[in-house]
Amino acid sequence: MKPLLLLLLSCCLLACQVDSKSQTDAPAAAAAFKTGAEQPELYLPLLKGKRVGVLVNQTSLIGQQHLVDELLRHGVDVVSIFAPEHGFRGDHDAGAKVSSGTDSKTGLPLLSLYGASKKPSAEQMQQLDIIIFDIQDVGVRYYTYISSMHYVMEAAAEHGVAMLILDRPNPNGAYIDGPVLDLNFRSFVGMHPIPLLHGMTVGELALMIKGEHWIAAAEQLKLTVIPMQAYQHAMPYALPVKPSPNLPNAQAIALYPSLGFFEATPLSVGRGTPFPFQVIGYDKFGLGNFQFMPVSTPGAALTPPLMDKALLGEDLRRVKAAGLDLSYLLRWHALFTAHNAVFFSSPSFMDKLAGTDKLRLQIEQGLSEASIRAGWQTELQQFKRQRQPYLLYP
Q1: Are strands 223-226 and 16-18 parallel, antiparallel or unpaired?
Q2: Are residues 112 and 222 in the same domain?
Q3: How far is the C-alpha of 268 from the C-alpha of 290, rounded, in Å?
Q4: Which end of the chain is more exposed for a tag (fewer CB within 10 A), N or C?
Q5: Residue 317 CB coordination number (10 Å)
Q6: Do residue 195 and residue 225 come from a single domain?
């Protein structure tokens, strides 16, 4: 495969222009941390005289200002705003259809990528010269912002539109863990053969998607990544704004890789409470003695599981959460088995979340966490080697 051409100048961290595969040439400057968006001097020149589209949401901030507002203030010709799951303002429920329309503040066309179509149309792309992706991800494969990025990259490649990624931290960037996706289980909650926790930023992942030809016409894509300044994968990072309605804080984000699987079970993980993805509970029997009741709330208005029922279970708001912990799944599955109850109420969705049916089958067979984890190691090591050329940070 051709070596990747990636221009990364030391200290100033000039925008990296990508043609195939690459790796950063120099460490980040010993300066204050900055996201890609917080370095407009590196990308505004790339937008001069261009018709610009943006794939953004409520996390696309430069300080307290939204990226779109800043681009308009600098005279950038923003043509359209593309909205992912949860919408441009981040106020749509998980799984709720996002409608196209007009942004009330800017008057710009608002085009949904989480409704009838998840990929920009040819007509939409023909109005653009370049499209910007600037969204805060959480580093978990089944979180769908990277799937939207995939489809926009592919549309850009197919229609000769340049792609600009403004990189942001991965709050789970210290971990590489979980099953690598089997493409037989590919879906919008898992599109790439990467582990559940891949330990990459969206910029690095975009380089890998292009370099490994995971999109159509990958070789035609003109991809530019604006790297962060003074960033490392294991660096703690408190998100300034919640990335989606049900990930309100650092604890929820840290537990999300472990608790997301419960979406394929009858249990509640706190949607419809003040502490989503920080509790586990059930109405008929439970582990622990914590009581809570999900109700219809903004961000969980689409009938959260076990709504208006008193639930008993575990309060995880103060546990030390890190990486992927299978013990929650294994304990609750054992409890359901003891009560002759069905644990995986949606086995097909579980397999999509896991990227394989092996995890579900191993749990149903009663395998230990150590045995399950042992089965991942060869593929994880292969992935670590495969991703190495695309890493921008230590």
Answers
A1: antiparallel
A2: yes
A3: 13
A4: N
A5: 16
A6: yes
382 within domain boundaries: no
Confidence at 278, pLDDT banded by 50, 70, 90: very high
- Asked if residues 167 and 392 have their Cβ atoms less than 8 Å apart, the reply is yes
Q: What pTM does this model have?
A: 0.89
- What single-letter amino acid sits at 368? S
Indicate the SS3 state at residue 375: coil
303: its two tokens? 């009938």
Q: How many residues does the chain have?
A: 394
Let me know whether 67 and 179 are in one domain. yes
Phi then psi dihedrals of residue 302, to 5 deg: -85, 55
Residues 199 and 140 grouped into a single domain: yes
What is the rounded (10 degree) CA torsion for 114, 95, 116, 112? -30
Residues 6+ apart with CB under 8 A from 371: 362
The strand ranges marked E within 40-118 are 51-56, 61-62, 65-66, 77-83, 101-102, 109-112
Give the residue from 355, 299, 304, 376 showing the smallest Cα distance to 86: 299
Same structural domain, 65 and 95: yes
Number of domains in the chain: 2
Do the domain assignments include residue 394? Answer: no
Q: Is residue 378 part of a domain?
A: no
Residue-range definition of the domain harbouring residue 321: 250-363
The closest of 122, 190, 146 to 55, measured between CA atoms, is 146
> What integer pLDDT is reported at residue 106 of this predicted model?
83
Question: In terms of domains, do 267 and 234 share one?
Answer: no
Which pair of structure tokens corresponds to residue 107?
């008057």
pLDDT 10s digits, 159-194: 999 999 999 999 999 999 999 999 999 999 999 999
Whether residues 111 and 214 share a domain: the answer is: yes
State residue 256 phi and psi, 5-degree precision. -55, -40
User: CA–CA separation, 335 vs 127, rounded Å?
Assistant: 55
Do 262 and 220 share a structural domain? no
The CATH number of whichever domain residue 62 belongs to comes to 3.40.50.12170
Model confidence over 361-373: pLDDT tens digits?
A: 999 999 999 999 9
Helices (H), the chain: 40-47, 67-73, 122-125, 145-159, 202-211, 250-259, 327-338, 347-354, 358-364, 369-374, 377-387
Identify whether 304 is part of a domain: yes
